[in-house]
Protein: non-specific serine/threonine protein kinase
Amino acid sequence: MELVDLALLRVLFLDNNKLSGNIPVGNGILYSNLERVDLAANNLTGSIPSQLGNCLKLRDLNLSHNKLTGGLPFEIDNLHSLENHDLCRNLLVGEIPPQIGDMLRLEALNLSHNELRGRIPPSFDGLLSLTYVDLSYNQLEGPIPNTKAFREAPVEAFANNKNLCGNATGLKICPSTSRSKVDGKKHNLVLILSIITPFLSALCVLLVILILFSLRRGRVRHTGTEGSVENRSGQEEDNLFAIWSYDGTMLYENIIESTEEFNVKYCVGEGATGNVYKAELPNGQVVAVKKLHSSQDSEAATDLRCFTAEIHALAQVRHQNIVKLYGYCFHTRHSFLVYELLECRSLRAILSNNERAVEFGWIERVNVVKGVANALSYMHHDCSPPLVHRDVSSKNILLDLEYEAHVLDFGTAFEA
Structure:
């Protein structure tokens, strides 16, 4: 198959034919305007050409059901506009390139029925737009990413691999978290036995246990100071932004713009350390932004310690019962944390509303206790060093529509 002089070509659909030979690439420039390519269900052979990395406008790429060989080209990290990527049912080998984790707009990824091996790259944690994934029938092993697309994927999406594990239905728990489950069951039993009293008494007992547990840790001595962050040239950097798989400056501007510089109409919650705002990013993703309260110069150092304590704690946390942190910003004008946005209500809000409290039955309450216990067990036994929240209360426990508990606000967490 040969295509030439098609510099203005935007859509190429040649699927379900009997085309053979290598994928045509010309001089690597001719097809730079391509947006959609479908060559599925043919008899194409050879490797995937690296020149595809020049198709910067490409949104859909379907090369499935062919006889393509070799590995996945690393040049695909240039395809930042790619939304649908289907390479299933080929003869591809090697490891999955971590560059795929840079495709922030990727919504569907199908690499099934190949001979890919190794681990799923950690960079996949940045694929926040991903809604569909299928990696079945390969030779993959190790943990799957802890993102919504992977957690909610059916077990068939990971079937017939070497040894995948993780927090998804049908997969075994990874060895590093197995101890958390064992310890979690012990904590669950103790807590459940302590709440076999009327509803209000049960809640009081739970809160008392949590408060006493946190107080047992006592006070922690802090050594060293938190200073300014230096950039690569060694100069002091006033603006610190770190967020996984995003351009920091761009995202900072996006959040300021989407909240109209933290206009009160976007505020969805207030707390002692900051207010929470709802922000919609340009890619359509909606996040929760916790903006820290401003303080006088004499309190700046305390604010910085509180801020970095929350970052240090949450950077290590990956658990279904703990609200996920996407990134943070420490700036002379605005300091804030970027969390996943959950359609949740706090435990305090539910209990303070008579109608909602009636709907909040015994089974749901036990489920909340189990979720909080699992989160605390994870922090105390699976984080290194162990973490203590120090502010577990009904306002910091969010409940989703299924009454699954999510622990929030690590601003006062410290290392045990």
About this structure: The chain has a mean pLDDT of 76. The radius of gyration is 25 Å. Residues 95 and 130 are 20 Å apart (CA to CA). Helices lie at 148-151, 175-193, 199-215, 248-258, 300-314, 347-351, 354-359, 362-381.
